Amino acid sequence: MFFTRKPLGLPTAAEALPGRPTAIPTAARHVVSGHPLKGPYPPGLRTAVFALGCFWGAERKFWQQPGVHVTAVGYVAGLTPNPTYEEVCSGYTGHTEAVLVVFDPAIVSYEALLKLFFESHDPTQGMRQGNDVGTQYRSGIYLTDVDQDAPAKAAKAAYESALRSRGFGPVTTEIAPLETFYFAEDGHQQYLAKNPDGYCGLGGTGVACPIGTGIAAQ
């Protein structure tokens, strides 16, 4: 499949690639923790989904966080069912590259993960992250339960205020309920654990996110 020009906007339903009815094969286990990638997860754990640019570097940020049980990379917020990496990169599926985070709220709070999310990238860049340009690099928080809506919006507002005081533009992070998380192919899972010198492409603004973390004592 070859695309001569990547669109800078999201595709319409008529423009989106057709995809396929079955899931793309992926890894069975996390190469760092050894835990099952798709579960089942231990009782009491929660999930969160974030998009902050190239998912290779983004995933490493989260698997290094104490209290995180397992992470996985995938595609969210698009139109094409069960897309491949190449299809997502074409700009004709509407997805963004995302990280699924399975965490223990007794050790790390959702607010702490939001703080890590905002401090790990520049959420003012729209359809890009640094030199990575395209709709699949847009910033997003995808809610896995209704209790995540208020803290996600509060964190976005607080960080936007802090960034504006430093001369940055508006935060373009989208906040929406998660519809489907499509797991990416095996080779993309924990990519930087398999390729320690591989490309990361993840930056930040150097501005601390002014929200409480709620990290529980360990």
TrEMBL record:
InterPro entries: Met_Sox_Rdtase_MsrA_dom (IPR002569), Met_Sox_Rdtase_MsrA_sf (IPR036509), MsrA_MetSO_reductase (IPR050162). Signal peptide: none annotated. Residues 47-200 form the Peptide methionine sulphoxide reductase MsrA domain. GO terms for molecular function: peptide-methionine (S)-S-oxide reductase activity. The keyword Transcription does not apply. It catalyses: L-methionyl-[protein] + [thioredoxin]-disulfide + H2O = L-methionyl-(S)-S-oxide-[protein] + [thioredoxin]-dithiol; [thioredoxin]-disulfide + L-methionine + H2O = L-methionine (S)-S-oxide + [thioredoxin]-dithiol. The active site is at residue 54. It is an enzyme of class 1 (oxidoreductase). Gene3D superfamilies: Peptide methionine sulphoxide reductase MsrA. Keywords: Oxidoreductase. The keyword Signal does not apply. Its EC number is 1.8.4.11. SUPFAM superfamilies: Peptide methionine sulfoxide reductase. PANTHER family: MITOCHONDRIAL PEPTIDE METHIONINE SULFOXIDE REDUCTASE. Has an important function as a repair enzyme for proteins that have been inactivated by oxidation. Catalyzes the reversible oxidation-reduction of methionine sulfoxide in proteins to methionine. Belongs to the MsrA Met sulfoxide reductase family. This is Peptide methionine sulfoxide reductase MsrA.
